[in-house]
Structures are given as C-alpha cells and as structure tokens.
Amino acid sequence: MSQVTRRWLALAATAGILAGACSGAASTAPTTGPAGSQPGGSQAAQASGDFSYPIDADPSSFAGSPSDDPTQQVDYELFGNAGLVYLDNKMAPQPGLAVKLPDVSADGLTWTFTLRDNLKFSDGSPLTSDDVKFSFDLLASKNCTQNPQTCSDVSQYIKSVTKPDPKTIVFMFNNKYAPFLATDAAAPILPKAAIEASFARFQKSSSAVTASDVKAEADRISAAMGAEACAGDNPPASCDPASYVAEIEPLLQKASVSLPDKGAYTTDGKLDGTTYGQALIDKLNDLNNALSSSAIDQIAASLRLLDYIKPGQFVGAGPYTLSNYTAGQSLTLVRNPNYFRNMPGPAKVYIPIIKDSATASNALKQGDIMFQYRVDSDALQSVQSDPNLTTSEFADFGYYYIGFNMRPGRPYADKNLRQAFAMCIDHDKTVAAATDNQGVPIQAEVPPASWAFNPDVPKYTLDVAGAKKLIEASGWTLGSDGVYAKGGKRLSSTLYVRAGKPQRIAFAQLAKDQLKNCGIEVNVKESDFQAVLMPLLRYPNNFDTYLGGWTVTTDPDDSSIFATNQCPTKANPEAFNLVCYASAEADKLFTEGQQTFDQNQRKQIYYQLQVLLHNDAPYYFLWADKLHRGYSKKVHAQPPESIDYTSPLDYWNMDNWAVSAN
C-alpha cells in the first residue's frame, strides 16, 4: 500500500512497514502464557501445487528488516513468523521462534524470551540466542541499514541484549516500551555464522580500494547533491544521481561490490538513470560506512553488500528461501526443509512483478496467479463474479494522505496553507467518487479499524471563502491567472502519485479541479514507484505535495512517521517523517503512549494525538480502504488451520497454505 513501512502488518507490514503490548488485548505488560493459535511444529506437507502471487515493484533488499511493501511481501516468505513473535489472524502476538510470550519484570523494563528446541536456518545451521543477539546488535548499530524505524526503536529504547545461554535472550529497556512485543520483537532473526563468513569475503574483496578514496568520493557527491541549488526549481545536473553513474560504477567494481541490476530500474526498455544512480550512491555510502567503521558497525553498514543475500546463497529461518530473482520480472522461492512451524505445502513460490493492479487482477482471473493482496475497486466486480475465485472484505489497518513538505522555504511549511488546502475539497464526496464507495473517509492518522480510533476528531468541511482568507492572511495575492502568488512565486506544486493506482489518481485529479476554485494549483504527476517516488521520499525530500499511503500495525504508535527525530537527514536519509513535521507536544504524547501499558490510558493519549495532527495538518488525511483480496479457490490452509477471510492478517498462516490440483 505504501512506499515504506516498518511494519510486518503490511505483509509488514510489515516494517513494517510490520500491536501494542499484547496487541491491545490486555491492559498490562505481556505475561508468560501464550494465547490463541499456536504453531503445530514440523509436519509432513500436504500434496500441493506451486503457489504464486504478484508484487507491484522490485524488492529493495533481502538484508533483514525491510522498509517497503514489495520487499515485505517477499520477506514474509523468507522471514515471516520467524521472529521471536508474530501476529495471528486475531492480531494477537503469538510465540514464533520463542516457545512462549516473554516473561516481563514488574517494572516492565526486563523482557526474557526462551527459544524453542532444535531451531535451524535454511542451510541447516543451528539458530540460537547468539543469532538473536547478533540480529538486534545489527539493528542497534549506528550504521543500521535495515528498516529505519526498527533501527531507531532498538537503538533508542533497548539498553542491552544479553544471552545467558543458547536458548535464552534478555532485553533490558531504558524505559517502558509498549509497542515492542508485536513490532520490533517480530524483526527477522539473521544467521550470524553465514553473515560473518560473507563479511569476511567482503573484507577480502574490498581491500582493492582505500577507505580514504571511497570517503572522498562519497563526501564529494553528498556535498554536491545537498547544495542549496538542489532545492530550487531548476537544479543543476550535479543534483541528479544519474550524473555520477560513470564514476561510481568502476569504483564499486574495483571493490568487488555487485552493481545494482539495471532491470529493476528499466521501464519499457529504458533505464532510469536517476534511480539507478541513486542505487549506486546507496551502495557507495554503505561501502564508505563499512570501510570507516569497526566491529558490529562495520558488518551493519555492509549488510546490503554481502553475498549471503544472493539467490542460491540466501540463508534465513522462514518458510522459504530465495532461489532466483530476475530484476523487473520475477522471483522464485523454494521450500525451507528446516522451517520450525510446519512443512510448507508448495515446493515453490513464484512471484511475478506486476506494477499495474488491474493487470494483476486479470492474471488472477486467468489462473496465472493464485492470490492478490489488494484488488482495487475497478476490478472488484469482475473478480467477485468469477466462480473460480474467492474475495474478502475488511477494514484495512492503513490510510492514504496528501503530505505537505514542511521544510523551511517550502510553501506548505505555512500551516495556513495546509489548512486551506483541506478546506478547498469536498472531502467525503471526493473520497466516495475516487474509491467507488470503497474508502472510509478519515480525519487523522489512526484508521477506523483500530481500538484507538477517535470518532470525535473534527471533520473536514468545504469552505472556499474561509480557505482564501487563510491564504491571504499569509500574504498571498490572487493573480490574474486565478492562482495565488507571493514574492514572485505562484502557489503551485506537483502532486506526485503512484502510477497504476486508479483510486489515488482519481482523488488527485478531483482534488486538482476543486483546488482551482481556491487559487491553488496542483499538477498531478503519475510516477513509477522505484524510478521516481523512492528518490523523492528520501533526504533531501524534493517535493511539495505527495499522495501516498501507510500500512500501520494494530498499535497506534505512529512516532515513526510523525516524531521530530524521524525527519530524514543526510545521516538518516530514509527516515519516515517525510514531511519533516516537528511538534514538541506531539513528541511528548508519543512518549507517554509508548511508556503506558494500560490500554484505556493509551487510548486517551492517542485521542489527543489525532486531534493535534488533524489541526496541525502535516497531512491532509484521505481515507482508509475497505480492503479486498482475491484468492483462487484452489488455495486453502492445511488443517487444522484455515484462511480467515475476515481478517486483515489473513496471510498470517500463508506458510501453511497449499494449492489443490483441482
């Protein structure tokens, strides 16, 4: 759904993309007793055909906790349910690699997990507390290259991670942190031995370059792309990552670092130099950090450069392992015979990359795929009427929004303009028209499916006259062309929206027409996710308005998106506060929510946050989906489990799905 999430709830998200303490089901810290559905242990797999489902963009990396939805969907097969805990279809935390939910000290600061017996990775090597500690040490590193929010959580809230014995892992927290159980505790556990061996190979091969040469190149490019001119209307070529391709490629090759596969950055046979160049810069920065660091920080920095994540060499603990990946086309996964929960049914999982949701729905109807994570409204009726398919409907834990870049110098850094923008749109009617009545209008960041949803957040109201008063109060004057202007600059922005997403595009176009009546101009630009949007959504965030979406967890803590310290920076370019919202009041409420275990008390805190975020308007909040998924009737869960078509976490037991011959 979104460009990024920390959460495993997104398929993490899932990660998240990527529940609070006990997923909101209890008012105290988690206790020792597991609840709900339990893993059945390894068992013989049912006879099954191969399984297939699409993703809508190339995965970004298979090195640990992911940030984007396409990678999270694949990673659910590679890592899913193989964290210390996972969420079941009732959104309750269940023991994963741990034999039970953690023992928690009376003060809420010490959490002790006990691992299951005889755990193994896909290569047959043992999985012990040493791997768990190693995985969380990587997340805590200053050079963490995994999901930015998971990295931030672990480094900020966890005081220490210790391993008293091979089956025991102990987390000590600086302060109470209620969301940990079903967010960060679900992070993938990585294979220490395989990564250290891969890192040793990397050290040997990268010795052909010097740390000083790599640093000089990385610093020079960073300075050029961070120049003030790059934030202007006509940035010079030095601001475009494409201009550095010719010089970075040979440097990486000299260090024996694999270049990004150009297929992931090619559309209709044409390479997008900007996104390919940015991928090279990312590798250069990882190399620079690795060569200039030591110990665990060196491994953390190099994680995305290591060969252990390549097809055929990948090592994980999830139900499948990576067999083949052809950028821009497809992935193939094969069954992990050492998976702890059960023996997966399909021997192979085929994952084509289908960017357009309507094309994916056609593939589902034709039997080319067997599951579609999201069936959009334009294809819903035809999918529902197909006798060979089953569809589900449920409230989504996610939402769409228009984000306003609030960095100094940007027009929407002015709160008056942000509020005016929302006042120019007939909110509910526009949502209904854009989504074919499949969207639930929202006014704040907590979706209606959540236990923390505040029904009393002020509603958006169409008020063109009031909007113009706010704009003019900020010194803007209506021009002869019908667009406000100030200091020689028109109140105009490009509204970026993901291509191939008809509901988002429809809303953007409808909003554009209504905003004209207020003297606000937006130019809707339908853009490829990897080629255009991903670079925009990282530092220095060169956009004014962006229509996107987030998939969230059942826990209402959205500090990863709105906390001041999550604004992307040169040091943390992929942080999630894309609009750079800064509020001491919001930060205080986020902290209170994180440190409160009682659900009723937490609810009141998040009620306040929703009103604050609505009024401050870093986002114009749009809608939450009535989500539909499509399933071939050949797909079923192996007994005694079943597919829960009423749950947003229907895929919680995808590791146990099988495909019938007929």
Structure overview:
The N terminus is likely disordered. The longest helix is centred in the middle third of the chain and has 19 residues. Among the domains are: 112 residues, no CATH class; 229 residues, Dipeptide-binding Protein, Domain 3 (Dipeptide-binding Protein, domain 3, Roll), CATH 3.10.105.10. The radius of gyration is 24 Å and the shape is globular. 30% of the residues lie in helices and 18% in strands. Helix 7 packs across helix 15, helix 12 packs antiparallel against helix 14 and helix 17 packs antiparallel against helix 18. It has a 5-stranded mixed β-sheet, sandwiched between helices. A 4-stranded mixed β-sheet has the order 1-12-11-10, covered by helices on one side. Strands 4-5-7-6 form a 4-stranded antiparallel β-sheet. The protein starts with 50 loop residues before the first strand and ends with a strand. The chain has 662 residues and is of the alpha+beta class.
Name the poorly predicted regions.
Answer: 1-42
The overall pLDDT average reads 89
Give helix % range.
Answer: 25-40%
What is the number of E strands? 26
CATH class categorisation of the domain at 398-626 = Alpha Beta
Concise account of the structure shown:
The chain is α+β, with helices and mostly antiparallel strands. Among the domains are: about 195-310, no CATH class; about 400-625, Dipeptide-binding Protein, domain 3 (Roll). The two termini are about 30 Å apart.
From the structure above, extract its key features.
single chain; alpha+beta; Dipeptide-binding Protein, domain 3; 4-stranded mixed sheet; disordered N terminus
